[in-house]
Amino acid sequence: MSSQSDARVSSRAAAGQAEIEAARMLLERMGVSPEQLLGAPLERPRVPTFAEFIPTVAATVSPGTRRVYSSYWNRILDQWAERHLDEPTATDVERLLAYTRTHTVARRNARGGRSAGEHLISALRCIYRRAENDGLIDPSRNPARKVAKPRRLPSSRRAVANDRLGEINQVAAGTGNDPALDSLLLRLHTETACRRGGALALRPMDLEPTHCLIQLREKGETVRWQPVSPTLMAALLAHAEQRHAPRDGRLLRYATGRPITTRRYDHLWARIGTHLPWVTTQGISTHWLRHTTLTWVERNFSPAVAAAYAGHSTGGRDDTTATYTRATQDEVITALVALTGEPHPLLAEPS
């Protein structure tokens, strides 16, 4: 037994020596000595500064991501523009997080800077994820991985009661410099539960009047065909025609023909709040309309129908189960018909 073990050790040593000799011969042919190899510094790509790298990252992300993160990238540039990506430590990130949470713009729905802190960490991780993928830093040197995001608190938004919703619509339709536009906005969001981004991205070419469908493009680059009532479809078509919206341009426009932006929503809710103080006190916004509609659909139909109505893939349920139980378009249209009290052309067609 001992002789066999000795033979195996001798064989492995001989094989190892042969590999060493082969490596030495290869180095000699390359004109490199073992000493030079040991003393040579490892070549690594130059690590850029934040000022150099953030524009590169911004050019690779979607417009929606860029819109959310841009203000936080600007805040990072204010503090770290000339620092290289491998310089900040986890402690530096925590300091920047604390500074961001205490220097946020005070909004109606402010919650101690938690949202700002969460977005700052996400914006930093976006930068460092790209740096890791490009081989600029080692994952173990990524300080954004080592700092936890502030825990997100449950949303304070909830469904708006019917009588309160009626008051909101009444003020929108009876005040301001463009009540027709504001009424259309509220109807669009209440009926479809779409987000602001989906409404602002809507184009005349996204309207399918024969079957009363509109194509919504929202966050996460999601695209879906949402059913609408004949009344809303007619209003959208008339708005596009009267305000000369190009087929492939933004549909929602001011009377001058200029496309609206998020500022229209800000002014709308500020104006409603002057007439209905509880709107300002509670911080009610367009997203509350989404909560209102989806809550109604969930209560009167099912979570699966509410998830489909919202454009969610699973509605927060197990992904495997949702594959089999997600709602059909007919079920979404049935909910819409119950909500609006109007017939829909697709329900009359055979499935």
From TrEMBL:
Domain named Tyr recombinase is located at 157-337
Keywords (alphabetical) are: DNA recombination, DNA-binding
What InterPro entries does its record include?
Answer: DNA_brk_join_enz, Integrase-like_cat_sf, Integrase_catalytic, Integrase_recombinase_N, Tyrosine_recombinase_XerCD
**Source taxon at top rank:** Bacteria
An example Pfam family from this entry, by short name, is Phage_integrase
Question: Hey, which family's this protein in?
Answer: Belongs to the 'phage' integrase family.
Protein name (Swiss-Prot/TrEMBL): Tyr recombinase domain-containing protein
Q: Which organism is it from?
A: Pseudonocardia eucalypti
